[in-house]
Design goal:
Blueprint: H1 2-22, H2 24-29, H3 33-83
Helix pairs in contact: 1-3
């Protein structure tokens, strides 16, 4: 779910960039550079926070999953050694 939100946020960020590149003359004509810049920074900040959260989850989950895999392998080896 979190990765989907990050992808959705990147899509929004890409749309903001595309609109600003295509509408550069309009943005300059109405002197809205600061508004558009803040809109970009706000979306980039949201994505940054989501990425930090996702990486923290990954950092906590990865060792746990590795440990459970090693525990399962140890159980299989112990069971197999007991049968010989």
């Amino acid at each position: 779910m979190l990765w989907a939100q990050i992808q959705q946020g990147l899509g929004v960020l890409g749309t903001i960039i595309q609109e600003n590149i295509v509408g550069t003359r309009v943005v300059r004509a109405f002197a809205s550079e600061e508004f558009e810049s803040q809109k970009f920074r706000r979306q980039a900040g949201i994505i940054y926070e989501q990425e930090i959260t996702a990486n923290n989850l990954l950092a906590a989950n990865s060792p746990l999953m590795s440990f459970s895999l090693l525990l399962a392998m140890a159980g299989i080896l112990w069971y197999a050694a007991d049968k010989w």
